[in-house]
Every structure is written in structure tokens, then in C-alpha cells.
Amino acid sequence: MSTVKIKSSRPNGEIVAPPSKSAAHRALICSFLAEGGTVKPIIDSKDMQATVGVLKALKKNETTLNCMESGSTLRFMIPVAAALGKDVTFVGEGRLPQRPVGEYLKLLPEHNVTVKSEGGLPLSISGKLKNGSYEIAGDVSSQYVTGLLLALPVLEGDSAVLLKTPLQSKPYVDMTVKVMKDYGVEVTQTDFGYLIHGGQTFKKIDYTVEGDWSQAAFFLVAGAIGGDVTVSGLDMETAQGDKRILDVLRNFGALTEVKDGRVRCMKSALQGTVVDASDIPDLVPIIAVLASFSAGQTVIKGAERLRYKESDRIKSVVENMKLIGADVTETNDGMIINGGAALHGARLNGYNDHRIVMAFSVAALFLSGETVIDDAQSVNKSYPEFFEDYNRIGGKADVI
Description:
Number of helices: 12
Structural class: alpha/beta
Strand order of the largest sheet: 20-21-1-22
Shape: globular
Number of strands: 22
């Protein structure tokens, strides 16, 4: 375990957004199904290592697939492996063995796949997935829908994904559909869900991964609270849902400039607002930090699924916010933050959760006194160079 010690400073400068983890997961799987082509650049994060490792293991016909701590790898690859008729066991690390996979425990046996699981990992599958209608709740995790969309085109017959409840985090599924289209595979959105023709072939292409809006958000918020920060390498036409950080920042009153794939955010007079996070759950930790430095009240809602991430992110955020002196109240699906409290440095918990560590590292830029955050190594899950970029724009972070 590592710890980061941070002294207050004023961020100023420019960084290049790292390649999108979400886009890379999808492109790597499409490339695997195409049996060729390159995917780059890829950040050497733990989640990327998980997907690359599982795909390599499948190519070698290995029977144990270690998804490490990556929920995307797990939920994407279970139906893909089933569509290929693989007899394999999925294992994981950290909180992943306890994260929900219940939709697959019901769906796969209905379509010719035997599943053995005590409710989480390890999870073993055998048999070859068959086409048909897949009824699934849309408000549990969009990752289930993405997994099915990636798997079903390689089956012989047509299939449909039928949503029993409205789809949350739909932009992530939109990204899946876009990446699949880049690989020559069509998915049709319907009134009831998605229609997928069987017998399609993923084409071999060399895929360029776009910049990551989720990671850019940390630095843009830093600029809005008390600096002048530019993030380059971003696609303004992206399907990434977390591009909505621009709208969120503007709703708080942040000053932004957008030009040629570069987004600049400058110190602003910030005012609290209402944020519906149902489609942007990964942004909640950094939005909460933004709210704590904004005048008035902010209500974050629609984020109940955050309780099943690397940590219970609602509880993790609220507990750390209280430690720095914020006026915050936990709700079932988010939190209420009253800005204007005197905030100060403190010893904070990282919860072995990359987004908690990164969000409160941004907060620490503007806190009086020193801030210490444990589990700093958790940033390796998605953004190993986070603290290098953080210090590049004037941060004072010492990782021990």
C-alpha cells in the first residue's frame, strides 16, 4: 500500500488526456473477435491488463480467466466466451468477486450455457451460447448490455436484447454500438432494446483509441475551482457519456473554452446545482468535490449503482467530505452538499478506489494544511500516470 501527501497549490498548465479506458476495452474485444488488427494507444492500467490478459488466455485455450478488479472485463467477457463455446472459469481480485453478475446467472442457462456460481466469483461456464431473446433489466448495469451486444453477432441466428426497465448509463452502450460499427458490425436500436443480426464478421482494422473524458474531468474541475488548466487530445464528437462534464461545469458556472480538441477551464465563481448522475456515475466523486467549493446547495441524485463499485462510492465520498469539513448528507442515491464550509486538509481514506483517490487529490489542491490519502496505488487501476500529470500542472503530491 502507498500513501500520497499533498500540499496546497494552484494548478496551471496543460496535459494530454490518456487514452479512453472504456473505448479501449471495447476495441480490444472487437479486435480479438476479428482475429487481427491493432488497438493503440493503450494505457498500462490494471483494468487494461485485465482485458489484455483474459484475451491472451482465451487465445491460448486456458481455462482460468483472471479479470483482476475490472468489472468491465468480467461483464463483457462472460457472454463473449460463452458465444465462442468456451469452458472457462472467471476469477477476480479485490471487491470484484462480490460485485453483481446476477443477470447472467439467469440469462445464460436460458440460452444453452451451464453456469456454476455461488452468486459471484469464481464463476464457471460451459456450453455454447444460442441466439434468441434476452430480457434484461436496464437499471442494474449497462455492462451487461454491452457484453451481450459484443457476443451475439457471432452466433448463427438473430437475437434481441429486450430491456425490462429503462437503460441507465446509456452513453456507455452508445459507445459500444459505435466501436462495433467501426469494426463493421451493426446493432439496431429499437423501441424495446436492441436487434442484433447473427453471422456477422468483425473486420480487421487498426484502431486508434480516443482521449478519456472521465480522466480529463479531474483536471478540468481543478481548473474551475482555482486554476487555469487545459486538457488536449479530446474528441468533441465522442460517444463517451462523460463528455457531459462540460455541461456539468457550465451548470456550476465554470468558465470553459473549447477549440481543436483542447478544453480549457479557469477559476470561476461557482454556484451549486442539481446533478442527475444516472448516466454519468463515474463522475460523481469529482462532481462532489466541485460542489464542496461552490456556493449554495448541490444535489447529486440517480447514483445508487455507485454502491457496487470498487468501494461504496456514495459512502466513501461522504465520509471523506466530512473529514475535510464539508457540509454533506448522504442519501439513498447520492448526496446533498451545502457549499461555503471552511475546508481543511485531513487524513483521508482511499478505499482502494482509484476515483476516490483522484477526486480527493484534486480537492487537496485547495485545502489549508497537508492532506494525506492512503491506497494511492489504486490509481494504477485506470490512470497510472495520474500523479505525474497532477504535478505537471503544479500539484505538490509526494507518493510514498
